[in-house]
Amino acid sequence: MILGADMDGIEDTKITTAILKRFMRDFADVTELDVAIAGAGASGIIAARYLAKGGAKVAVFERNLHVGGGMWGGGILFPRVVIQEAAKGMLEEVGVKLEPTEAGYYTADSVEAVSKCTAAAIDAGARVMIGLTVEDVMIRKEDRVSGVVVNWKAVELAGLHVDPVGISAKIVIDATGHDAAIARVVQRKVPNAKFPTSTGGVVGEKPMWAEVGETEILNNTREIYPGLIVTGMAANTVFGSPRMGPIFGGMLLSGRRAAEVALEVLKRS
Ligand code: 48F
Q: Of 133, 135, 136, 196, which residue is most buried, by most CB within 10 angstroms?
């Protein structure tokens, strides 16, 4: 037997066609969604999983080529994260191995946690689109966020003048982390938009204080403008709560809460 004989018939152009056909079909399939999530960090990925499990058509748009946001790198590039008892079950459910600490927390390998949470979200039916930045939202006459506007991150990096495209969604979740990029777009472009915060706008995150940040994040995970829900660190930035560093229980719980809030809104609409 000649080594490599089973590789006969492989043609470069057929590989090209296969990629083009498959990706164009998959991209076309996410142009009309129940929920569009901006950002595939811990909170966005968890929200996607619970939304898909709840029967929603959901896609996550992540500007990087990798998912995981700040969870991927753990604390100061030591790829291990800490989670507390309340969120333990959410990682165990997807097969992440946890180690208890003397202080009563648990540690997880961040690469394992991100990979398994992402795989579970995809298995539940969520679509994860990478390399796409959410740069704008769509707002229609009823003063409601009704979709996202996306462009390739590569276009942004190259500084090219290329117009983005629109994706319709009944609900948009801002899971962009510290920037709260989507809430800020709404604040900038809709002068009369009033968020349920102390200032009526994005308050801005406070210095690191894990205990308070982790406590306040669930209450901050809300619909702040019709059709726009904030989760994860974006929720704390919007409401002016502290950041919390490499403890991730709050992010996971916030992602699940965002999915619950979104499913409630979908049920009412
Ligand atoms: O930053 P990130 O991990 O947000 P998170 O889910 O978790 C916060 C923690 O990482 C950490 C912490 C833990 O206590 O405080 O900071 O709230 O993930 C946000 C993701 O959104 C992407 C970004 O690349 C990252 O993967 N992202 C940000 N802006 C955009 C975006 C955008 N405009 N469009 C698409 N993706």
A: 133
